[in-house]
């Protein structure tokens, strides 16, 4: 098969490209700067210069591909408009270019944030009405809606992963491991909070399953939309102690009054506006952090695709810690 992968320099994208090349598929990687995509070139991907934020650069990337996997997007930005410009309008431009090229399959890797938070003990399912609470989540839901406008021209599908972790992770694990190494991991607020996780290898398997066997996105409803997780609800304490154990450390989780986290987020957002450099802890991110649960059910993916998470949390964290250690990153 012939694939186009956007966001291929990210940790999910690189892992996907590695898997596709290993099984003998032809991979085209859309990159903004080919000079900074040496790992993809070494893996055997063909680099195509382009940017989903610049529609005129996409026409040459999509012809003659069987599947587009759209991973590119912003997880943090200084303004709401930036998030929508890349996440929503970038998806619209890519879907339009893919539709013009022929009957291409299109898999959008969205986010659980597009669906919104859940209730402890009651993970979200695909048929639940989306209720995103952050600008990021709203921009990802807008991306899904942009793709819906092309469902009569594309065989489209959407995956909404929760927290993704594993080797090459650039957001979640680096900060968690740094705190775990010190033996003190902060927690925002005193209340119990729960999360779903998926290892990057399991997410790649889900992407392949959706691309090859998934149902098709329609004008409305939950057909063609899939969650993926290992099916376990984790407390923040469990995640923190799991990271410590993977590093061979012991320590404590220290609750921080939530108003202090809001103050820190406000300060980070103010600095971001001045410097033009987005911060991961922002007022928008706090809209997600304050929620009691971000969990989702993998039942539909298991039922329709025969997919199941294979990497357990303990193994995944140990493997990730080893990867970071080997590269001097923790």
Describe this protein's structure.
The protein has twelve helices and 14 strands. It is an alpha/beta fold. The strands form four sheets. It has a seven-stranded parallel beta sheet with strand order 3-2-1-4-5-6-11, with helices on both faces. A three-stranded mixed beta sheet has the order 12-9-14. A two-stranded parallel sheet has the order 7-10. Strand 4 (67-70), helix 3 (80-101) and strand 5 form a beta-alpha-beta unit. The longest helix is centred in the N-terminal third of the chain and has 22 residues, at 80-101. The protein is globular and about 55 Å long.
The helix tally amounts to 12
| Mean of residue pLDDT values | 95
Please report the first level of CATH classification, the CATH class of the domain at 2-169 and 197-230 and 294-311: Alpha Beta
> What's the CATH superfamily of the domain at 2-169 and 197-230 and 294-311, by name?
NAD(P)-binding Rossmann-like Domain
Largest sheet: 7 strands, parallel
**Cα gyration radius (Å):** 19 Å
Please indicate the percent range of residues in DSSP E strands (runs of 2 or more): 15-25%
User: Which percent bin holds the helix content?
Assistant: 40-55%
Q: Whole-Å distance between the termini?
A: 38 Å
Q: What is the overall silhouette? A: globular
Helix/strand order: EHEHEEHEHHEEHEEEHEEHEHHEHH
